[in-house]
Specification:
Elements: E1 4-12, E2 22-23, H1 28-56, H2 75-81, H3 97-111, H4 114-120, E3 126-135, E4 138-147, E5 152-161, E6 165-171, E7 183-188, E8 193-197, E9 200-201, E10 208-210, E11 230-235, E12 242-247, E13 252-256, E14 261-266, E15 273-278, E16 285-290, E17 294-299, E18 304-310, E19 315-320, E20 327-332, E21 336-341, E22 346-352, E23 358-364, E24 367-372, E25 376-381, E26 388-394
Parallel strand pairs: 2-9
Antiparallel strand pairs: 1-3, 3-4, 4-5, 6-7, 7-8, 8-10, 11-12, 12-13, 13-14, 15-16, 16-17, 17-18, 19-20, 20-21, 21-22, 23-24, 24-25, 25-26
Length: 411
């Protein structure tokens, strides 16, 4: 049975997206070049990852996607699953031109349809929801429009991805542009981070690529980027040109988006960095969660770990407490929901929230919402002490891998 799951998703606030996104119109020759370039790039990356894994044999690297049951793939299928675009046909110059022209004419006719034009327009009351979708060995970034008032939810546009998406992060910083944009950074099973412009449709190429995986072992650990899957991303809204990333390669990188390169690398971690988030007010402080059961507070000015707190399982999710600048909320692989206080260097409380790992964690001033591979979503009351269960929803959707609150309505 083909795998069909959503590993990551991200809400985009209302009023940010352009009312009429730009549409890229490609000639047959341009389309051929982009498709074949993308295929070459992802095939090279997949082969490099496979070669690196065989050469180095690092423990834990092969299980980067275990929560998605990727261990059931045989070795060749694992590599093929990295390249969602790998099954896209090559457009060679001897293909049937009349068929291509006919398809182009049909698409132009569809573009003229009034209802399609109405759907293409994004209203100020619309949210966007970016969704990483994996179906078999195909990976897609789907951009939904959601209108709460009308109850509308539909796919506005989508992008074929060259790798399985694992993390999405919205950001407004556009290099060489004074006005804010509407961008989405994506980390996945390959070491590179791709940044897409959500105000542009029909594109096959990202606006920006961060990182470069070297096939030469000698250069793999230079500041060109990560050397393995990227598990989480966090944009620094106070320093908008800075993006942080955590990886299977046991490092955290800080990226200068204006220069499109890593400017700081932190390698003090003993295991995979699964989750991280910038402090909402302390510009240089980053909280991280790793597979060796540690929540760590990192001062990025000096590159040192200020505090480390041990928990009962792998740290799947960590976010800052909405009502305490010194505390973080934690979800673990054991299904535990906890709160860490970095002043006392201890857990304030920890409860058994789920039967399986916590895969999603969000909070506002009076509630916490969690999701799990046990197929449930739970809402917890947050009133200063240990949270109390308010609501449980058995979704019947299979394992849940991500959870996000709507920025305008947490209900």
């Amino acid at each position: 049975m083909d795998k069909n799951f959503i590993p990551c998703a991200k809400w985009i606030k209302r009023g940010i997206a352009k009312a009429k996104p730009e549409v890229v119109k490609l000639t047959k020759k341009e389309l051929k070049g982009l498709v074949n370039k993308a295929k070459d790039r992802v095939l090279t990356t997949a082969e490099s990852i496979r070669t690196s894994t065989q050469d180095e044999g690092e423990p834990g690297v092969s299980d980067a996607g275990d929560q998605f049951n990727m261990e059931d793939y045989d070795k060749e299928d694992e590599v093929q699953s990295l390249i969602g675009i790998g099954n896209m046909m090559s457009l060679d110059e001897e293909s049937d031109e009349s068929e291509t022209e006919s398809q182009a004419e049909e698409e132009e006719d569809e573009d003229e349809d009034d209802s399609d034009k109405e759907d293409d327009e994004i209203k100020p009351t619309d949210n966007l929801i970016a969704v990483g979708h994996v179906y078999g060995d195909i990976s897609i970034l789907e951009v939904y429009v959601y209108n709460e008032e009308g109850g509308d939810l539909y796919v506005h546009h989508d992008v074929m991805l060259p790798t399985i998406p694992l993390a999405l992060e919205w950001l407004s910083y556009v290099p060489s542009q004074s006005t804010p944009g509407n961008l989405l950074a994506m980390g996945g099973m390959s070491p590179e981070i791709l940044v897409w412009d959500l105000d542009v449709t029909n594109t096959l190429e990202p606006l920006l690529q961060l990182g470069e995986f070297s096939e030469t072992k000698k250069y793999q650990h230079r500041n060109h980027g990560h050397t393995d899957a990227v598990l989480d991303l966090s944009w620094n809204c106070q320093l908008p040109h800075i993006l942080a990333s955590g990886s299977v390669d046991r490092s955290v990188l800080l990226w200068d988006l204006g220069k499109a390169r890593a400017v700081s690398q932190f390698k003090q971690f003993k295991e995979k960095v699964q989750t991280l988030e910038w402090h909402p007010s302390e510009v240089n402080v980053l909280v991280t969660g790793t597979c060796d059961r540690k929540v760590q507070l990192l001062d990025c000015r000096i590159g040192e770990t200020l505090t480390s707190i041990k928990v009962d399982g792998e740290v799947e999710k960590v976010i800052w407490h909405p009502s305490s600048q010194f505390s973080a909320l934690i979800g673990t692989s054991k299904g535990t929901l906890g709160c860490a206080d970095f002043r006392t260097k201890k857990l304030v409380w920890a409860i058994n929230a789920h039967e399986e790992e916590v895969t999603g964690l969000a909070a506002d001033c009076d509630s916490i919402v969690t999701s799990s591979t046990d197929q449930t979503v739970k809402v917890w009351g947050l009133s200063g002490g240990e949270p109390t269960l308010r609501f449980t929803k058995h979704t019947g959707l299979g394992e849940l891998h991500t959870l996000q609150m709507c920025p305008e309505n947490s209900n």
